[in-house]
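User:
Hi there, any thoughts?
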Amino acid sequence: MAASNRKNSGRVIILVAVVLILILALAAVFFWSQNLLKPQSQEVATPEPQNVMSEIVVIAQPVTRGTSLTESVLTMIPYPQEKLVQGLFFTSIEDVIDKKAKFDLPQGMPVTASVLTEGQAGSYAAFQIPRGMVGITIPISRLTSMAYGLQPGDHVNVLTSLLLVDMDADFQSKLPNYSASVTAPGPGSAEAPGTTASTTITSGGAVSMQGRTEMDVTLNQPIYVVASEAQRPRLVSQTLVYDAVVLWVGDFPSDGNISATAAATPDPAAATEEQAPVARPELITVIVTPQDAVTLNYLLIANAKFNFVLRGAGDTEKNATQAVTLQFVMDQYGIPYPSKLPYGMEPRRDEMLYPGEAPTIAQ
């Protein structure tokens, strides 16, 4: 009886296993048939684009402005053709030979038509002036050029000083006016009765200066006062131009190449007795706006005085200043007007002189 039961249980297990195998087989067939019915998408490999290269002309070694280009300073380098703008770069060295550089060209710079010229390249100084600005030359001295310490590229403020006088608006002459006596017309002479003599202006052999009437407190009567000297001009100083750039100090080089010439101060230690004395510059050329150039030209012709004060490196701020007159100095710095005292210093001093300085000779 027990053996019969074991046989029956073994048959059941085998039967269950067969059923499971059949189920798995049917499932596999089902999924396989579903995949056969789906359209098969074919993956097409996208070909990688080929980077086509061209060659352009570049500067093989640094070139200074005005230099004629030769094969020794040029070379060719590959450049992506898709980025090559038609007509921008040169693709043949022969197209560049014997052309001149408009600017200083660094090594590795692609050559374009905008940096080349076939004729005269103009002055070197012109390419140092920014667009919209101009250069103007002004005389300098030891005191107005910071003891000849200014160098090309320095930033300076330009100060100006003017001497102003009172003018007669009609005559356009300096006051006070001269005065003269006037002879009124009278009756005709015996030789020509009925005629009238003309008006004449006389001054008794000398023209007298126009004055004014004042009441004398001692005599208690009016007196006519004239000036003891000609009118004294009144001095005023003010900053005229802010942040001008020094283009050059002294005369420009004969070849005009300021980029290759250094305006360096000679070394005193290297000087010998045989060497000629150093020639000090008498001119300075600054870069200013066109309007400032017109103003500087006007004041230069009017014999105004200029002074160039050096700005600190990197300082571009415009610090407005006040015009300076004698009244400003007295008020701003608290300088009192000296009182008239019953005593004084000896010897008499009519002008201030430093030790060794010669007195001014009166004109």
